[in-house]
Design a protein that fits this description.
Layout lengths: L1 E10 L3 E11 L4 E5 L6 H8 L7 E6 L2 E2 L8 H5 L2 E5 L10 H11 L4 H14 L15 H13 L5 E5 L7 H16 L3 E5 L3 H7 L2 E6 L2 E2 L1 H21 L2
Parallel strand pairs: 3-8, 3-9, 6-7, 7-8
Antiparallel strand pairs: 1-2, 1-4, 4-5, 9-10
Helix pairs in contact: 3-4, 3-5, 4-5
Length: 239
């Protein structure tokens, strides 16, 4: 689903957010990206979502090299990806229903079909009875679940989340991760940036550890070796 090949991302002033990063996330996996603040977690997710582009290297998502996606095609590309943010990014002057419906409205989905999909998404995050409320009347955990409902309302193949539990207490954090786990169980690929190692340990999922924009030294050799073995196996299978 995701292939990052020798990717470097430089920002003005010479700051290298990512340095020669190579990794892979297979379809149907649920993988966490860990590392201290500034390690490159958010930058990696932005490259996948085409919020940013790499300075060098290749980002391949679902078989498509993002370098070949023109600016005009970015909205269509992003409709395949659900995105969840730490600060929710909700519209506080609109009710829950309208917040979740936003991706469908942008995609031109008819009102009746959109309403059905919105209510199905809200039901999955246990907020069906909150559709007429405004975000400011909800708890932080409920607001995060609205953000998750909006991310999955279009039934994306891939869901990426940037510190989705950063502002939540441990119980709410675990509840959010269990929601993600349910999506993963029905085939959604998930890549989640998080610094909460204790929470990640409870879930037993794959982990990618970044340090100063690169894979941590203790795991870099294993990850690259595994990636090359998979690539060679694919090439042999295609012969």
């Amino acid at each position: 689903m995701i292939r990052i090949e020798d990717v470097t991302k430089l920002y003005p002033g010479g700051h290298d957010a990512l340095r020669g990063l190579t990794l892979r996330v297979d379809t149907g996996e649920m993988v966490f990206v860990t590392g201290h603040s500034g390690a490159g977690k958010s930058t990696l997710l932005k490259l996948i979502a085409l919020i940013e582009r790499p300075t060098s290297g290749r980002v391949i998502v679902d078989g498509v090299n993002t370098r070949n996606i023109t600016r005009r095609r970015i909205p269509a590309y992003r409709r395949q990806i659900g995105m969840v943010f730490q600060d929710h990014k909700l519209l506080y002057d609109r009710p829950v229903f309208d917040n979740v419906a936003l991706p469908l409205v942008i995609a031109g989905i008819g009102h009746r079909e959109a309403a059905r999909k919105v209510r199905a998404a809200l039901d999955q995050v246990s907020l069906l009875n909150k559709e007429k409320q405004f975000p400011e009347t909800l708890s932080s955990g409920e607001q995060q679940r609205v953000g998750i409902a909006r991310a999955i309302v279009s039934r994306p193949k891939l869901l990426i989340a940037d510190e989705p539990t950063g502002n939540l207490d441990p119980d709410l954090s675990l509840e959010v991760m269990r929601i993600f786990r349910r999506f993963n169980e029905v085939g959604v690929t998930l890549l989640i940036a998080s610094h909460d190692i204790a929470l990640i340990d409870q879930l037993g999922c794959g982990r990618i550890a970044l340090e100063k924009g690169a894979l941590q030294i203790e795991q870099e050799e294993d990850v690259v070796s595994e990636y090359m073995e998979r690539l060679e196996a694919e090439q042999e299978g295609g012969l």
